[in-house]
Write a structure and sequence with these properties.
Length: 148
Amino acid sequence: MSQPPVILDTNVFDFKDMVHWLGEYRGDKIIPTVVYMELAILYLAREGNLGKLDAMLRSADIEIRDFNLQHAQYCALFVKDHRISKDRWKDPMIAAYAATPPFILLTNNVRDFAPLLGTRAIPPYDFKKAIETGSLYDILEDEESDGF
């Protein structure tokens, strides 16, 4: 069975060993443009340029995806349905990329994303363990059987 595509939240990049492991992960690895922007701000402050950021993304084969009409529509629904304030739109923008299966969001901020994505918002180390033990689809099937 192929490995599912993952959307990466900004906080996943706080852990170099996780980024290294993601370089070995054979599923698609995607960052939304809003995550790239957040990382770019950090790299510009620390490094003064984006060369190291872009090199790190290339080395782990992480793709940057633009925010499109479908993402905007999902984001608007998340904002409306969950009454999210205007100053908190980054999380719904990120969640919009993972709004439809088979996408899974890797984040250390599951509490904020779970209302939007259910069990498809997974801490990166839990995801790694589930991939290594073959239990990922058990987690995702639990969500489907719960009616999500």
